[in-house]
Fold this protein.
Amino acid sequence: MTRMIRHIAAWALVTLLAAALGGGELAAQTQAQTPAQTQAPAQGQTQPQAPASPMQGPPAPINYDVWEGLAARVEAELEDPAITDQRLDQIRAQAVSWRARFSEAQGTNTNRIRSVREQLDALGPAPGEGETEASDVAERREQLNQSLSELQAPGIAASEAFTRADAIVRLVDEINRERIADALVRVRPSPLLPSSWAAAGRETLSYLSGAGAELADRYARGVPSSARVPQAVGLLLAALFLLTRGMHYLKQMPRALSMRAGERSAAVVAFIVSLGQIFVPVIGMVLLVSGLQALGIFGRWTSPLLAALPLAAFV
């Protein structure tokens, strides 16, 4: 019995020693793998970085010498009546850009100016003629007034430059308006003068020649593959009906409805008929143009003529 107990105790001791040794090896392996696992993302993956917050510095100071030179050259150019419209647009764009910078610079040192003025107010009103104040107060008042003048100088310079830039913009706009007005009231030769007939005849012959050549070329090629013949036929038939018989049936409508309608209804029908006399021809011309365009045989010479046909229906 005692021997059996000793065997069991020996066996338990051996098991405990084996477990202890196995746990130590596992811990060692875990410690060995931990640095490798920690460094793995740095080798195979890109670690996200915190976004850098860009620092926006103060705006660049205005070079008033450059502006004065530019303004002088521009004002001299604007006195030339032969200046081109393109150059006027360039001058206006430059003046608008400078004016925006000057408008922003007018608020320079606003907070500091307010602070200095509050300090001057704290000193009390300035002494009048024949009055004096303490020497330290007078010295402090002089320092504050000097600081106030220095702080106000950039804003005053920006205000003066803004006024000049705005005057250039308004001058360019005035020149553009004058040119537009001159173009509108410019006297053109009357088309009734014989001297204008030759130019009109040349333009007419040029159009007829181009349109004829275009139609001849389309006729030689035949109906294009892009033509929608069934749709064109339907539109042309509808247009033919409205242009030939539409007004006839429209005029018959009041007579057919007069026996059934009262006085008020007859007035409404008469009003509808009067509107129909305007719109039925126009709709017919629109359908005619759509049907002809669906055939695909009209090009750049004849398409403008088709587009003008619906407007001709109003005449």
The chain has a mean pLDDT of 75. Residues 135-185 form the longest helix (51 residues). The chain is about 75% helix and 0% strand. The CA atoms of residues 2 and 130 lie 128 Å apart.
